[in-house]
Amino acid sequence: MSPMPRKYGIPIASLALIGASCVQSGPTSELRFAISFPPSLQEQAVDGRVLLILTNREEPEPRFQVGAGLEAPQVFGIDVDGLAPGEAAVIDGAAMGFPIESLTDVPPGDYYVQAVLHKYETFRLANGKTVKLPMDRGEGQRWNQAPGNLLSAAAKLRVDPNRSDSISIIFDQVIAPITEPEDTKYIKHVKIQSELLSEFWGRPMHLGAHILLPEGFDEHPEAKYPIAIFHGHFPSDFGGFRTEPPDPDLECEYSERFRVECYNRIVQQEAYDFYRRWISPDFPRLLIVEIQHANPYYDDSYAVNSANLGPYGDAITYELIPYIEERFRGIGEGWARFLYGGSTGGWEALAVQIFYPDEYNGTFAACPDPIDFRAYTLVNIYEHENAYYDAGQFKRIERPGHRNWLGEVNITLREYNHLELVLGTRNRSGDQWDIWEAVYSPMGADGYPRRLWDKYSGEIDHNVAEYWRENYDLRYILERDWAKLGAKLEGKIHIYAGDMDNYYLNNAVYLMEEFLESTTDPYYNGEVDYGDRAEHCWNGDQENPNHISRLRYNTMYLPKILQRIERTAPPGADLSSWRH
Fold first, then answer.
1. Does residue 578 belong to any structural domain of this protein?
2. In terms of domains, do 526 and 449 share one?
3. Domain boundary among 439, 470, 501
4. Cβ neighbours of residue 366 closer than 8 Å, sequence gap 6 or more
5. pTM above the 0.70 mark?
6. What is the pLDDT averaged over residues 342-371?
7. Are residues 355 and 381 in the same domain?
8. What are the backbone dihedrals phi and psi of residue 93, each rounded to the nearest 5 degrees, phi first?
9. 428 and 555, same structural domain?
10. Quick count: other Cβ atoms within 10 Å of Cβ 508?
11. How far apart are CA 502 and CA 537, in angstroms?
């Protein structure tokens, strides 16, 4: 799960939005937006999703304001299939919107208006299915930043659903390509074509990674190193590492999420402090890896094999990691590989350890996405009939989707899912609930993921829920298979969560802890810990506030990894060449 709303700020050149020609009509009038692109911008017809955003705020650009929170702008979406140059995609009262469902119900007013065309490509899968999906283009599956997508300029327009206005919007900009990061002394970048994934998707598919090299790597060519995989969302570069002191001219920015002044300066200071510790003589020497595995559904794959995404688990464990170990002198054995991460990365770190128990020697899973689907946030997918509502004899209430540390709710599950349905049908929103279905669900007859629940109504399909249980419910899988997994996982599992996690993820951790603490043959011999009143994503630091500890994953977990190596390394293992 994404630990905070994404914010992007790339410069956008001047774009053209052609204001409306208005035609007065009778009382049955209907507002419509006709959105098109000229041949000079795009010569061929395109498939994709046309999104239209209306907002009262000028900054940031409307496309960067889209979200499900209290200040959410209005957004509408429609699919286009073979939209030709000059042909109009029409958004009218029939198009689904969020937060207001129909354009006819938008209050009359002056709004900043912007349109985006999120392009889809055709994939002919190895199983014979054909699907249209947005290929990641280096941006980490962000529709409002994806290179090649079409844009209009944001312009202030009068919008009145009570009139038969026909508002023409012309795309006149293509989002520019992403600049690849450059190698430095400490940080290297790799990309490989995966044979496993390319076969599944029917086209070349790649995996990438950013590798942080230990101090003295070049000076000690004989050394081979343990490796730590830091799982998380799509990283544009290796984060939290800075070889220079904080910029003294950096303008202070307030963090709304943490309610902290000058948080950008704190982030730079923490990154510099980590560098100073990294090069200090007493700090563990090992490789740290952040993986790039964005795919046509999301900014990462959840690092497991999936009916809809393909064999990402095998591709990462058996193709990418060995490649990195060979190129950067990794030890290349399971006792010297470790996993950690938070949120989505926390789920991945735990799942990969469970699904590949011999290939890794420990996992540190912070604030993991739901690890027991009886607490899929606030939904029990096996017993509840509806995800969005809890119903009684004569009333029903909506299930919350997001809270703060005081329990104050600002988003419901229905709102999260309805926004995704506007951003993309068939799990193509590139957002959280859609990727969970894409990873965990069986493939449908149309080649797209089967829905766990009806995206509009919330009615749960319990046949799909059973598939989820048998394949991805981590607590259930551990309990079902403990007789063969227990000995392989003894001492490897460490889980952390704040007891006021914004997404209620601590509820599933409670259920996992209940099982783990009851294991006796063998006892799991790990750790589950909670942060008092801590929000998403608490990671086990009882001494510091969340806004600090979230920046210290590496310094927190690497000493624990070193202790695990010393305690469990096999006889004759190399425990010295990398201790320079």
1. no
2. no
3. 470
4. 340, 341, 342, 343, 345, 346, 495, 496, 497, 537, 538, 539, 540, 553
5. yes
6. 98
7. no
8. -65, -15
9. no
10. 26
11. 8
